[in-house]
Amino acid sequence: MKPLPLPVRLAAGLAVTAVEQARKLPQQLAGLPVTVVSEALQLSMRVQQTVTELAIKGDDALAVLRPVEDEPEWATFDEDEEVDEPEDEPAEEPAHDPWEAEEQALAAEPPAALPNYDELTLPQLRARLRALSAEDLRQLLEHERTHAGRPEFTGMLTRRIANLETQQPTEAQQ
To answer: Which of 67, 124, 137, 142 has a CB 3.0–4.6 Å from the CB of 120, allowing a cystine?
Structure first.
């Protein structure tokens, strides 16, 4: 017996599938609202994730065009709020005068390697590191330690100096 033509076989398969789906329809209708809501929420979350990813990429791209505030003026933290100390415990005197430290920071010259160093954000500094010599980096590190003392800046400068020092012997061998 010769097989039926492909379009006839496809039509018969489609009809059987339609009958099977029609039999399942009452069971599927009960769960349909939950399925629709679930898929709508999933779609919403995917859209939010995509928008967030695009915003992060945009922030990274725009960071080189304008400096980003390290700490916005509206941001308050627990450390910023004054706390009343109990009267029975005397307040400890600071080890150094904060006004003197501020005066020293204002009077100090900016590092010659990057005159606007104190205004740079961490990503802006990272973008300029490859153009600096080990000596320039040491000057920046010393400046950072004596002035702002920001751990993320000192860590990045220290790592870059270490990388340069490990690369120099291999370059000298070539």
So the answer is: 124
Q: Report pTM.
A: 0.38
What is the DSSP track for 46-111?
HHHHHHHHHHHHHHHHHTTTSPPPSS-TT---GGGS--PPPTTSPPPPPSS-HHHHHHHHHHSPPP
Residues 123/100, Cβ–Cβ less than 8 Å: no
Contact 116, 124 (CB under 8 A): no
Q: Name the band, by pLDDT with cuts 50, 70 and 90, for residue 65.
A: confident
| 3-state secondary structure (DSSP) of residue 137 | helix
Residue 153 domain flag = yes
Residue 24's CB is within 10 A of a number of other CB atoms, namely 9
Question: Using CA atoms, how far apart are residues 68 and 62, in angstroms rounded to an integer?
Answer: 9
Q: Which domain holds residue 121?
A: 109-168
Distances (CA, A) of 59 to 31, 54, 70, 124: 42, 9, 14, 13
Residue 70 lies in a domain: no
